């Protein structure tokens, strides 16, 4: 990382007064394609202090280059992304989540697939720093969402070396490779929050990280019962176009408020929803084999225990626990979204946020096991 932007000798305070640092960082290749905030010593130190001082302390190594992410370099990338110091605990927890071995950041960074880490925040800290889980949650307009996700991406670029066409081999990518960070709409949701479902207390804060495609809109303006709404989600899940069709793995299901409230009115729990989705989605093997019109297909990517009979139903996830359910969105609109994962090559990680933002071993998950 000796060439990383914003080293101790390349901050806004230490360069020539006549140098346009924004253009300089473009020339050096230290940005994600958008202008960055010049990292002044004062802004860097404010974040390093939040991390516990010791700017040379290494918080993580970032694949595939395996660059060392020191606290100072973490702070520099946060400043360049436009983060406030109070976002530090979330960014740190997100970095710890994606660098968990189970997440396989090396594969996510280098794959030809479109996958990008999606970060979803739960708990009081999301509200304290003003994150958006409501109207236009996946869109523009919220500083915390945008800059936290962007900081993670800048770290993946500047420290991990995941530059498009170099170590990043994604054929197409998607807009989430700029920033992909949201919060659950806990205050308006009729269901218990995601992190509570997974054993945390409501007053705890967490980050969930999954290698994910872009959101796929799921529209149903007709059904007013759980089965009708969820059948539409099953339809979205049951596609032969995503990696999950033959590589299984995990998916994220985001219910919009109107859909979530209609389902909850019938007394359905999170478990009911996930189990319904699991038991009522899937594809026929013959469809995955394209009718054998290109030759007899066995498909070694599918588990051996699946029958290859034409009418055998092939699920895209191994069980209901591999369906990660959140509630987001604004008051109006009968829309939800499905977010397919990358496949079984990456396991999502749920990690506690240490509100003190001190790095090291802080913020362990339930039972010490982060992978889901």
What key phrases describe this protein's structure?
Thiol-disulfide oxidoreductase, globular, 4-stranded mixed sheet, 2 domains, alpha+beta, 372 residues, 13 helices
Written overview of the protein:
This is Thiol-disulfide oxidoreductase. This protein has 372 residues and is of the alpha+beta class. Strands 4-3-5-12 form a four-stranded mixed sheet. The protein has a four-stranded mixed sheet with strand order 6-11-7-10. It has helices spanning 21-28, 41-50, 71-81, 88-98, 105-110, 124-128, 143-158, 194-197, 226-237, 244-247, 257-264, 270-279, 285-288, and strands at 58-62, 67-70, 116-122, 181-183, 206-212, 216-219, 251-256, 283-284, 313-314, 323-328, 335-340, 349-352. The model is unreliable at 5-9 and 361-369 (pLDDT under 50). It folds into two domains: 1-213 and 347-372, no CATH class; 215-341, no CATH class. The protein is 29% helix and 15% strand. A hairpin with a 4-residue loop joins strand 1 and strand 2. The chain is built from 13 helices and twelve strands. The radius of gyration is 21 Å and the shape is globular.
